[in-house]
Design a protein that fits this description.
There is one protein chain. The chain is built from nine helices and eight strands. The chain is of the alpha/beta class. The protein has an eight-stranded parallel beta sheet with strand order 7-6-5-4-3-2-1-8. Helix 6 packs across helix 7.
Length: 241
């Protein structure tokens, strides 16, 4: 059954209330937190309802789905009469292979999943060829799980420093994925480690004022992530349940 606008609005209100409460506990402003709606499990009509609800930061995990969704949505937006509150911004949140960088950059405004120097250099080269600068986040495997992508915790600061020397990418911060668990607090140590890494980078003057984002937290643990400093939360199922 297709999800309705009222259902998405209800879910979004609950999520924003949870974020606001987490921000209050952490003495932060909810305006610091961006909800990235991960759309990989839903159809185009559900994405239209997201836009109707005012969410324009959209994320995809696979390049093929990213490009297909973006094409479908672009065609819809050309026909849409009501203006959006802000332009759609696409986030590539899943693992990115170097041979798919060209296709991803045709759509993505921000790549959350840069986990190696070789990938960063490929993005930089493609961006230079296109005459643009690409916003990226360095993905760190703070959970230290073998099945997860991301650079090693011990390599993150040095890799981030090298990435800031590339002229056509802009390092906005760090991203991580916590262990999959039904207990949100079990993710806290992962989020704390990512925050410590970005604080270390700031102390070493890496990235300057651009280095301001922590992309961490998903549907099951976003409130804990916000308590620990998340500025971007990647939420899918909690929006569409």
């Amino acid at each position: 059954m297709a999800i309705t606008l009222s259902r998405i609005q209800k879910n979004l209100t609950r999520i924003r209330d949870n974020i606001a409460a987490a921000c209050d506990r952490a003495h932060r402003s909810p305006s610091e937190v961006t909800i990235v709606a991960v759309t990989k499990t839903v159809d185009l009509d559900a994405i239209k309802r997201l836009l109707d609800a005012g969410l324009t930061d959209l994320g995809e995990s696979r390049v093929q789905e990213l490009t297909e969704r973006a094409d479908e949505l672009a065609a819809y937006l050309q026909r849409r009469q009501a203006p959006l509150p802000r332009p759609v911004r696409w986030h590539m949140v899943g693992h990115l292979q170097r041979n798919k960088v060209k296709a991803a950059l045709a759509v993505a405004d921000c790549v959350h999943s840069v986990d190696s120097l070789r990938l960063a250099e490929e993005i930089d080269a493609r961006a230079e060829a296109n005459g643009r600068t690409v916003d990226v986040l360095l993905q760190v495997n703070c959970a230290e799980e073998a099945q997860k992508f991301g650079c090693a915790v011990g390599a993150a600061v040095h890799l981030g420093e090298i990435m800031t020397t590339l002229n056509n990418i802009r390092l906005l911060g760090l991203m991580t994925m916590a262990p999959l668990t039904d207990e949100p607090n079990a993710s806290r140590h992962t989020f704390v480690r990512l925050r410590e890494l970005v604080e270390e980078m700031r102390n070493e003057k890496i990235g300057g004022s651009d280095l301001r984002h922590l992309s961490m937290g998903m549907s099951q643990d976003y409130a804990v992530a916000v308590e620990e400093g998340a500025t971007m939360v990647r939420i899918g199922s909690a929006l569409f349940e």
